Amino acid sequence: MHISSNSPLFSAIVAAPFGAIGIRTEAGAVRELVYLPPSFDEKAPVNALSERAAQQVERYLAEPDFRFDLPLAEVGTAFQHKVWNEIAAIPRGEVRTYGDVAKLIRSAPRAVGQACGANWFPLVIPCHRVTASGGIGGFSNHDDASGFHLGVKRWLLRHEGVEGYA
């Protein structure tokens, strides 16, 4: 990949083994992290926060035990925050099912899946650690078994030492 300044939507774009990760910052907070396909070029950070976020994404991609420390924009419903807090507590190398998370917060698996799909901060809130009871489940509101997003989820799980989702 080469450095590009032609992506005004993102404050930085970091190369990743599966493609790239777009970083949006706004008003002193990370607004969004986005999984991008390989067709996106890297983009140098445009401000100090996007540089900090890019460095942390790169650290995670190199070291799966790295823990993020970024100011996140205040987005999401109270229910989504409940789900995201449970997901954030799942240790690296482990997964929970949508049903497991649902039981913890006294909800339904489908609602947990919808909250996972609405996650603005993947990697920071590791929704890839939530799977279906019978397999990998969906990811980022996508469930095409051979699609880009489930490929990202498989890579992230392998990166974190989780077996059985190839």
Automatic annotation (TrEMBL):
GO terms for molecular function: methylated-DNA-[protein]-cysteine S-methyltransferase activity. Signal peptide: none annotated. Pfam families: DNA_binding_1. Residues 78-162 form the Methylated-DNA-[protein]-cysteine S-methyltransferase DNA binding domain. InterPro entries: MethylDNA_cys_MeTrfase_DNA-bd, MethylDNA_cys_MeTrfase_DNAb, MGMT_N_sf, WH-like_DNA-bd_sf. GO terms for biological process: DNA repair; methylation. Keywords: DNA damage, Methyltransferase, Transferase. This is Methylated-DNA--[protein]-cysteine S-methyltransferase. The lineage of its organism: Bacteria, Pseudomonadati, Pseudomonadota, Betaproteobacteria, Burkholderiales.
